[in-house]
Write a structure and sequence with these properties.
Layout: E1 5-9, H1 19-25, E2 27-32, E3 40-47, E4 55-61, E5 69-72, E6 74-79, E7 82-90, E8 100-109, E9 112-116, E10 123-129
Antiparallel strand pairs: 1-10, 2-3, 3-7, 4-5, 4-8, 6-7, 8-9, 8-10
């Protein structure tokens, strides 16, 4: 059987975003879930909300931005002063070892459009083989 695969973050794990970063950007990645296999990617986002309608989406690609998909994020219970949103990115079964998933987060409101794109580098998850070849285990 083919080796089990994992999507591994290729960016520093900063944990929860700092208050200064959230204040400056108005939106930032809070955390990623640790999927056991690269079938989906789940995460949460924090935004500094304001009055009026809001839209939080995650833009992602598997082909170095030749094409992309925008997926809406759903509201979660807030943790003041920030509002929180959850998202799930569907990963195609054709993803192979060495492939990359890149993503960035967009927040639109009457106050403007704001992005968290990891300081201009985008967030990247690399598809890596799991040692042992059995079911993939989540990293600690």
């Amino acid at each position: 059987p083919p080796p089990a695969l994992l999507l591994v973050p290729d960016f520093p794990d900063g944990g929860e975003p700092g208050a200064e970063r959230l204040r400056r950007q108005r939106v930032c990645l809070e955390r990623l879930g640790r999927p056991a296999a690269p079938t989906d990617v789940r995460g949460t986002v924090q935004v500094l909300g304001g009055p009026g309608p809001k839209e939080v989406t995650v833009r992602y690609t598997f082909n170095e931005w030749l094409s992309f998909v925008d997926v809406p994020a759903a509201p979660l219970p807030p943790e003041p002063p920030a509002e929180r949103y959850g998202f799930t990115l569907c990963v195609p079964p054709s993803l192979r070892e060495g492939s990359a998933l890149h993503f960035a987060i967009r927040y639109r409101s009457p106050q403007g459009e704001f992005w968290d794109n990891n300081g201009g580098r985008n967030y990247t998850l690399r598809c890596c083989g799991c040692p042992g070849g059995g079911p993939a285990a989540a990293p600690p």
